[in-house]
Amino acid sequence: MSTQTHLAFASTAVGITSVIQVPTLSPGPDEVMVKVAFSAVIPLDTYIADYGRIVNGEYPLVLGFNLSGVVEAVGPGVGGLQTGDKVCGFATAGSKGKGLQERAIIHSSACAKLPDDYSLEAAATIPDNFVTAFYTLFDCLELTPPTFPVSAPPPHAETPILVYGAGATSGQYAVQLLALAGYKRVIATASPRHHSYLKSLGAAHVIDYSADDMLEKILLAAGKKLQFVLDCISAEGTLKSISNVVSSDGVVAMLLPVTEGTTHVAGKDAQMWMELPVDRNPFPDSVKLIGVRTLLYQQNEYLRDNLMPNILPRLLEEGIIKPNRVRLFDQGSLQDRCQDAFDVVRNGQVSGEKVIVKVSSE
Predict the structure, then answer these.
(1) Which 3 state secondary structure label does DSSP give 281?
(2) Is the dihedral of CA 106, 108, 109, 112 positive or negative?
(3) What angle do CA 360, 361, 362 make, to 5 degrees?
(4) What is the Cα–Cα distance from 259 to 281, expressed in whole angstroms?
(5) Cα(295)–Cα(272) distance, rounded to whole angstroms?
(6) How far apart, in whole angstroms, are the C-alpha atoms of residue 350 and residue 348?
(7) What is the tens place of the pLDDT at every residue in 69-112?
(8) 0.85 cut: is pTM over it?
(9) 143-159, pLDDT tens digit by residue?
(10) CATH for 5-125+325-358, among 3.90.180.10, 3.20.20.10, 3.40.309.10, 3.40.50.720?
């Protein structure tokens, strides 16, 4: 057993988080050890910390699903990564790979090598949203997976595709990937402050989701009811709106969990569902409703072997994928930085940006 330890920000019981010492492990087969520079805080982190979601009784549980940093050691069988490489990673399971700790052990298939001059702050915004968008579009919605650079239009290049809540960080990646893959009629809903940016990413139409005539504008832009919809908010209210514009044989992908009400931020007393209850489902049976569980993306062998190790590094090297805007927490102790970051996320004080925590003090 390792006698070395390092600092980590962890949930130690429901509603309790603190910086603790955890063992510094060595990487096993196909694993790398990363000295973590930055990590993101996402709503799922707050659900775990505040309500004990998906903990399964395992405390303490280190938090943080994204990380960026430098490879310090590689385990047996690792190819394509070596000590000193700058990487970003997506921690899909267990505490040893989570981002809010000074050293993380992560499977090499969940790591992407970064260009030497790439910002580690920016890189920490990428993994979960990039994986979520790619997995949702090209697995869950079954759009044709692109091979970059795209040499021919995809089968649904001229089919209107709605990204609802595209100002969300996951929505920004969805718009980018659709445009890069050759889809010409991406319709995005977002608050007005995000409109120009989403158009620059490739959205053909951007509609104010708070406008009284939003649904009419969506149908006008599409010319008909929609066959493909991605809901990046996944609240009862957004699903109800989408039910008015999706075709009877359409497909709707919703990012889980679904929250009660109209916002993706779930308060203490709000309900959340990993499966939408029948009495909360506004869609007819003919509409295919897909709940997206991004943490399961590696069940798709092609995505496991290619998405982070090959596809993302190529897009970053060519400079054709843009990271989210960063809201950085780098002042005070690790406890202070993490606590402040969690507060802004749990209180819904984030829009179109990724909350990033500086982890390493060195």
Answers:
(1) coil
(2) positive
(3) 95
(4) 12
(5) 17
(6) 6
(7) 999 999 999 999 999 999 999 988 777 999 999 999 999 999 99
(8) yes
(9) 999 988 888 999 999 99
(10) 3.90.180.10
